[in-house]
Amino acid sequence: MQKQSVKNRETIQPMLSITLPVYNGEEYIQIFLDSILSQTFKDFELIISDNASTDRTKEIIEKYAKNDSRIQIYYQEKTSTARDNCQFLLEKAKGKYFMWTACDDSYSPFFVETILSGMEKDPSIILGFAPYQNIDENRSSLGKPVFVDNSAKTHLLRLLKFFWTYNDCIIYGIYRFDAIKGTVLPDWWSINRKSPYDIAYGYLPYVLAKGGYGLYGTEPLFYKLIKTTQHYQPFHKRRRIFAFLFTNLLRRINLSWVEFVNIAKGSSLIIAIVFSPVIILRNAFEYLRMIRNIARKQIKIAVDSLSTIHSN
Fold this sequence. Notes:
Elements: E1 3-4, E2 16-22, H1 29-37, E3 44-50, H2 57-67, E4 71-75, H3 82-92, E5 97-100, E6 106-107, H4 111-121, E7 125-129, E8 132-135, H5 155-165, E9 174-176, H6 177-180, H7 197-210, E10 212-215, E11 222-225, H8 241-266, H9 269-311
Parallel strand pairs: 2-3, 2-5, 3-4, 7-10, 8-11
Antiparallel strand pairs: 1-4, 5-9, 6-11, 7-9
């Protein structure tokens, strides 16, 4: 059972429900909260679901909640998957629009206002996003601003654009809530079930098959943290490489099926069948790219080892 610590605005429907699934977010959550609460658009509720954190997350979010009646906090009794936590938040929201967030990201004060002003003018848009900038732990920019434009008049073109770029960052856009209310988030064999990206690749094909996409703004309004010092290292033991490759092959097959099913749910079975070669090719490409990256890593390890031997 979930425990709600702050009870606010129970009978008022806000324009936007901003939701935050969080687990041990003490390092960055204050920056996140400051950026959300400083939005120029004020008519929103902020629903936080703490996934049984063991750090100072509870202390920090309750401090903010005491000073802002828009914040509601729920505590999960035990740590669940990110998919389950995101589903929980989807069921708690009551705004006209909806968005998921991550505690280590931050926003321009104009993020919400810019997107909602565009979506209000075009009812066909069910997912709106803005240009974003990848940043490191020091808040320094990594590369150029990213413009993810999946907009198109037909679902086939929207899906083609998505599978071409395969950028799952748009999961953090703003959704028209009526279009996604009551949906069950997909659960696939993701390698990292603690990340909200666990649901992105399975869910976004459903959204883009169901309705329009809009990109709003001419400069970055969203800042995506890339933790450059905390890379996942799955193949430090050579004897596990082949097991890792086999497991990930099964994951890619599973994800292909989940994407196929969700396209069918968002549009039709015929569209999903027509689009299935694209799904297969994209997942095959991602799998081969992973193999290439593993090979490069193993070559680098071997070269470094030889260099160490010669230097000694």
